[in-house]
Here is the input.
Amino acid sequence: PSPEQLPLDRLFAGIDVVSLRGDWSGAASWVGFKGGDAGYNHNQLDLGSFVFEAEGERWALDLGKDDYNLPGYFQSWPGGARWAYYRNRAEGHNTLVIDPDACEDQDARALATITRFQSSSTDAFAIADLTNAYRGRSVRRGVWLKNRTTLVVQDEIAADPTDAARGGADVWWFMHTRASIDVSSDGRSALLTQDGQLIRARVVAPVGARFSVWEATPLPTSPHPELQGSNSGVRKLTLHLSLTEPTTIVVVLEPDETLDPVDPDPRSLGNWQLDDAITTVERQAAVTAPSPDVCHATASPSPMATTIPDTVPVLGKPRFTG
Here is the structure.
């Protein structure tokens, strides 16, 4: 069939990946969004990551793989050296990082289910349950392509009983881009420019959140292995929060920056609904036990060990790396 005969939106339930698009033209808005199984062959710690295109440009990008010859690159078990490399870590993707340190920043065996998907003639959205990725802390992310042009990314993060006592959970929101980023004086919006095209990013919630711009390099607490890719020309639109109570993060990406900003309806992900939906899919979130926390269990946590242990912890069905 011709592209015009194909659906604009699709949930690939077998791998928990969603594609939403405005139309089939080259300038249309398009978002790819993934849950899935972090333990599959060649996978990265990218649960909840998204890619966004509009006006013929890719605004939120995926860095892809690094050099397969890097030491320990395919040691993908919990605590393995694979998770020391930036492009394999959650911090190297367009997703959340919570309480980062030298260990893997999502569970290396987590399953993330797309629990709700709806599509209508004018809008489409998908919601992923990322709780397993953050070792049982309830985290959900939704992406909504409103009016087939504007992208809303909404995160709902539960508080842990220990958060307040230790001064708050350290939460990072990242979006990688090759665009130039001009953050407003109040930090609540940013203009992204690329090849003569512009889009506007706005942080709608929480009230105190402010955008900043970081290079696509590891956080100070992360491993800094030699020889990994430099990610030259890529930067990160960033939010950094200290979380002591349940928190909702809402970011809007608007391809038509000339229009007056319109905030999305302030509703929880559980209340996202398209009254004129043509397609609705609801699924139960997978619940998995956290994988062995090998890295934190060592006296000096370091995921950079490059020797292969006699036994490799594997949960569920066997995984193989190539």
The CA atoms of residues 95 and 259 lie 27 Å apart. Residues 304-322 have pLDDT under 50 and may be disordered. The radius of gyration is 19 Å.
